[in-house]
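Before a colleague's protein record goes any further, I have to sign it off. What it holds is a sequence and that sequence's fold in token form. Would you go through it and say whether the fold makes sense for this chain? The record follows directly below this note.
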Amino acid sequence: MKRTENVGFFSRIRWGIGSILLVVLLIVFSAIFIYLYQKYNSNLSLFVSILLLIMVAIIIFVKSQEIILPMNPTTKPIIGKTGIVIKEIVPGKPGVVKINNQLWSAYSDSTLKVNTEVIVTEVNGIYVKVKEKCNV
């Protein structure tokens, strides 16, 4: 289960509360200045409104150009490590495992119930492939 599909536009943009508030405030103030332009025919109000809308466009453009990829974890040390299933894993539907006190999204070729001890066989980006650990 290799995760190579592209990340969606809105998922790529990190819209924190600050970014959202800034864009909303800029649009609100721009609307106020457009209203003032219509009421008083003030060219300065029109100019400020256009400037604020340009700022909104720049913010959206810059945010859309950020390349946000999952961090590339060090794969070598985790392969072969054991962990515990935290959320059930079903073939085709990832679950969660805890390895070295870290939670990982995991997938497997077989169904693995919660609290099953597993071993990591490979790493694909932010996903680990696991199999049930056979206690001998």
